[in-house]
Automatic annotation (TrEMBL):
<dbReference type="InterPro" id="IPR045865">
    <property type="entry name" value="ACT-like_dom_sf"/>
</dbReference>
<feature type="domain" description="Prephenate dehydratase">
    <location>
        <begin position="2"/>
        <end position="180"/>
    </location>
</feature>
<dbReference type="InterPro" id="IPR001086">
    <property type="entry name" value="Preph_deHydtase"/>
</dbReference>
<keyword id="KW-0057">Aromatic amino acid biosynthesis</keyword>
<keyword id="KW-0028">Amino-acid biosynthesis</keyword>
<keyword id="KW-0584">Phenylalanine biosynthesis</keyword>
<comment type="pathway">
    <text>Amino-acid biosynthesis; L-phenylalanine biosynthesis; phenylpyruvate from prephenate: step 1/1.</text>
</comment>
<protein>
    <recommendedName>
        <fullName>prephenate dehydratase</fullName>
        <ecNumber>4.2.1.51</ecNumber>
    </recommendedName>
</protein>
<feature type="domain" description="ACT">
    <location>
        <begin position="193"/>
        <end position="269"/>
    </location>
</feature>
<dbReference type="InterPro" id="IPR002912">
    <property type="entry name" value="ACT_dom"/>
</dbReference>
<dbReference type="Pfam" id="PF00800">
    <property type="entry name" value="PDT"/>
</dbReference>
<keyword id="KW-0456">Lyase</keyword>
Length: 275
């Protein structure tokens, strides 16, 4: 399969795609999330997509929720990927040789505690961690290092001169597998992503949530978004977790009369947190 991802070869999106779809997965690199969604929708260059949706430290990637809602695409699964950042350089180089470290601003921030130990090293922001690794490889500079994934070091033939330099060791990003076509949920499906809109009335959201709880459904995520055409009116993204698909379907029947709109993005198997 060819999977659309945001970023360059060797990025964390590629790792997530390979974990979900298999090691032989080919990638279609996209420079932005809207481009990723477009390529999955059109279907000529990608069979499906893998899109980051939230991080355990930085929180939700809010624009991606709106992108997903308006795309007409379906969620078919999810992957939790631990974000391990490594300092890498040309083979044979040591950290004492490095004068500049290049990476995405978020990666530099995630590794701030380690980098503070080397005040003489200049930090240079780039648009992508994997692209930074690629540039070190292409430029053959012995004084420049990159912060990126282990996969990037393997692809661009760089040595990891300082592994796992991120400050927070429990840093996970959640990725959603998205497709043009919905799939029939497996018997062991235990999670669903839905959108719903409630009337602009006092207690309307509380009524919906109480019905969900009454069926033993857990909410691992609920996020509100304003509706531009209607002042002070919101729709909600909810990730529901359940043990029995029958309880989930019963909960939907109970909340549907209480909502102005209810859309199921996907019913799928909950992803595992991998080290």
């Amino acid at each position: 399969m060819r999977i659309a991802i945001q970023g360059f070869e060797g990025c964390f999106h590629q790792q997530a795609a390979q974990r979900y779809y298999g090691k032989q997965t080919e990638i279609e690199a996209c420079s932005s999330f809207p481009e990723l969604v477009k390529k999955v929708k059109v279907g000529k260059e990608a069979d499906a997509g893998m899109m980051a949706i939230e991080n355990s430290i930085a929180g939700s990637i809010l624009p991606n929720y709106s992108l997903l809602k308006n795309s007409g695409l379906h969620v078919t699964g999810e992957v939790y990927l631990q974000i391990n950042q490594h300092l890498m350089a040309l083979p044979g180089q040591r950290i004492e040789d490095i004068r500049e470290v290049h990476s995405h601003p978020m990666a530099l921030l995630q590794c701030a505690t380690f980098l503070e130990k080397y005040p003489n090293i200049k930090l240079v922001e780039s648009e992508d961690t994997a692209l930074s690794a690629k540039n070190v490889h292409q430029r053959k500079s012995k004084t420049i290092a990159a912060i990126a994934s282990k996969l990037a070091s393997e692809i661009y033939e760089l040595d990891i001169i300082a592994p796992n330099i991120h400050t927070a060791k429990n840093n996970y990003t959640r990725f959603l597998a998205i497709s043009r076509n919905g799939v029939e949920p497996a018997e062991d499906a235990n999670k669903s992503s839905v959108y719903f809109q409630t009337p602009n009335e006092s207690g309307s959201l509380a009524k919906v949530l109480s019905m969900i709880a009454a069926e033993g459904i857990g909410l691992s995520k609920i996020q509100s978004f304003p509706i531009p055409a209607k002042e002070w009116t919101y729709y909600f993204h909810a990730d529901m977790e359940f043990e029995d698909l029958k309880h989930f379907r019963k909960a939907l029947k109970r909340i549907e009369p209480l909502t102005d709109q209810l859309t199921i993005l996907g019913i799928y198997k909950k992803g595992l947190t991998h080290a």
